[in-house]
What we know:
Blueprint: E1 3-7, E2 10-13, E3 18-25, E4 33-39, E5 46-52, E6 57-60, E7 68-73, E8 78-83, E9 92-99, E10 113-114, E11 118-123
Parallel strand pairs: 2-11
Antiparallel strand pairs: 1-3, 3-8, 4-5, 4-9, 5-6, 7-8, 9-10, 9-11
Amino acid sequence: QVQLVESGGGSVQAGGSLRLSCAASGNSYSRYCMGWFRQAPGKEREGVARIRTKIGVTSYADSVKGRFTISQDNAKNTVYLQMDSLKPEDTGMYYCAAKSQRFGCSTFTDFGAWGQGTQVTVSS
């Protein structure tokens, strides 16, 4: 069973940067694909970025391309989300998630393991 613990959220002004971390436990099959999601108040949760952990292939939502970078440190079983040029619309609760090899890593669906979330607030 995968356990995920996020950290690194906070408050920042527009144009600033934050780096989120997600420490993961569990076997590699269950962490085949790792993703970051966010949910703003009154809105549905959306996928932000994902990474296929064995080979490092990444994918991003159009809204964050060129500003956010997902990366990993396999030795530490940790996935990061570097967020630059932050905008007020990036405000929300950010969640780390994992899915097993059974579901591949081509979409933001079928993530079965979730962290508790970390709040990101961007002020104008």
